[in-house]
Design goal:
By secondary structure, the chain is α+β, with helices and mostly antiparallel strands. The chain has one domain. The protein contains two helices and three strands. A hairpin with a 5-residue loop joins strand 2 and strand 3. The longest helix is centred in the first third of the chain and has 13 residues. The radius of gyration is 14 Å and the shape is elongated.
């Protein structure tokens, strides 16, 4: 899925308004799993944490299925 930057902010605001407090972005392969974790906060801020180091991600991506 591709979302333009300004629309992403609108999406995050709408999700927060509906009670969503966190979002996990996962890769479709179970071997790779979660890539990014977003925590939505009360003051309109968000904490974004990358859950895999780039080397680990690259190793997982290149590993045989």
């Amino acid at each position: 899925m591709e979302i333009k930057c300004w629309r992403f902010v609108v999406l995050l605001n709408a999700l927060y308004d509906r009670g969503v407090e966190s979002i996990a972005v996962k890769y479709p392969w179970t071997d790779i799993g979660q890539l990014v974790y977003i925590r939505l906060e009360d003051d309109g801020r968000a904490t974004v944490r990358f859950t895999q180091e780039s080397i680990m991600y690259q190793d997982n991506l290149n590993s045989p299925i």
